[in-house]
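[audit] Reproducing an earlier prediction to check determinism. Same input, same settings, fresh worker. If the tokens differ from the archived copy the diff job will pick it up downstream; this log only records the rerun itself.
[audit] input (239 residues):
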Amino acid sequence: MTSPDIRFYFDPVCPFAWMTSKWVRMVSEQRDYSVEWRFISLRLLNAAIDYDAHFPAGYEVGHTAGLRLLRVAARTREEHGPEAVGRLYERLGTRIFDTQKDDSDGGHRGTADFLVPVLAEAGLPEQLADALEDSSLDAAIQAETDEALSLTGKDVGTPIIHFEPPEGVAFFGPVISGLPEPDQAVELWDHVLGLARFPGFAELKRSLRERPQLRSFGVEEDEAGLQEDWHGGSRRTKK
């Protein structure tokens, strides 16, 4: 089987993964890259963390919803192939982040009521919603989470990108709060690859970020979001 040009590891409830995925789709269209959408679960990644002590309220519920949606993505791949995962993620991200402001804890995203209309939009059968409750799929999701972290190290979040696998370069991010213009998308991609491919390069980072330009955050695409300090890839209150 031919490897894709890009493996993109995502959790469907991560806003920065969603923003980066939209940029990667822009780049893949212009460069004719193939993209394989793979899984990294924030809930499994933080399994040993005391959420109440380390995160703002609502994070555990939201991350658990992400794990439940990844179960559906795993079942989708089993029954409908990897291309269907890309369609499902695109529709999930649009519904979660690009539709309307959402001040809830995100727990409803892990329910059949939320998911079934998304499956219909993606051209997938509603019976896939049964996988929300199927914890037997967690082993496969954990394996891909471990795979992603083996490429970058463990002190990262989502997304993780592996370009030209299996030997090509892999990196966390880039974390972007807004989309570049179409003519800037490939330029940004080339700059990111240039850094990632440099031997010995490890990190370029600021934890101060603009709130993502996503409607779920109450920020339109042409607005600047409120600047916040994100620790370890999230709004953790304690390391």
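[audit] rerun output stored. Observation attached for the diff report: The first strand starts at residue 6 and ends at 10.
[audit] end
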